[in-house]
Amino acid sequence: MLEKLLNLDRRYIFICMAVAVVLPVFLPMRLEVIPTESAKAGYHFIEALPDGSNLLLSVDYGPSTKVECHPMVIAVLHQAFRKNMKVATMSIWPEGQPYATQALNEVAPQYDKRYGLDYVDLGYKAGNDAVLVSLGIDFRGLFKTDLKGNRLADLPMMQSIFGLRDFAAVGCYSAGRPGALEHIKYTASQYGMPLIIGCTAVQTPEYYTYFSSGQLKGLLGGMRGAAEYEVLANVDGTAVPGMDAQSIAHFTIAFFIIFSNVVYFLGRGKRR
Fold this sequence. Notes:
alpha/beta; Rossmann fold; 2 domains; 6 strands; 52% helix
C-alpha cells in the first residue's frame, strides 16, 4: 500500500491542484481577510478627503498582472464615486490604458456618473519619467486632450483642474517600471502630492520602507492587498474569491508535501 502511494501517478496531484484552484472561484468560501495597516491607511486617507475632491489614478499594468492590480482600481473607483469624487485616469504604460477605460466603463454606470462631468480618461502618454516630471510643471500642456480627443478646456470636470495640485491625491497601480518608484520620486517627493501605491506581490517589500517613512499614504500588495481593499470598501470583486483559491491551493501543496514525507518515512521504517 505504501509503495503504491509513493509511486502515485502525478496526474492525480495535478487534478487535485486544479480542483483546489478552480472550485473556490465558482463557489467562494469567503475566507476571512484581515486588512493590513498599509491598506487601512490608504482607504481611510481617501475616505477622509472631502466629498467631491479630485482624484488622479495612474493605471500601469498589463495582462500578466491584471489579476493582482485591476481589482485595486475597481475597488478605489467604487469608493471614489460613492464620495462623488471627480476621477481622472492616466497611464504611462501603453498596456495600462485599456484597463483604465475598462474599469471606468464598469464602475461609473453603477453610480450614474457621466463622462466629462464626473470622470475623464486622459489615456496613455509616452515618455516614462519625463511624463511625471511634466505632470507637476505643465499639466495642461502635457494633456491637451483626453483619450477621445476632447479638449480638456471643453470638459466641465476639468474647468477647476489646471495642475497636479488641483488633485487631492494620486493613486498609482503599477506592475513594474516606470511606475510606482517613479511616482514616489516625482509625484510624492518632488511635488509633495499624497500618494497611494498598489503593486504586485513581488514588489511589495521594496515599497514598505516608503510607507513606513510617511512618503506613501497607503500601500496595497498583490492580490492580498486588492482583497483587503475590497473588504474595506465593501466591494464584491474578484480578489477575495481569488484569495480563497490561492489559500486552498497553498493548503493542498502543504498537505501533499507533509503526506509524501510521512509515507516515505513509514515505508523506510518498514523496509528496515
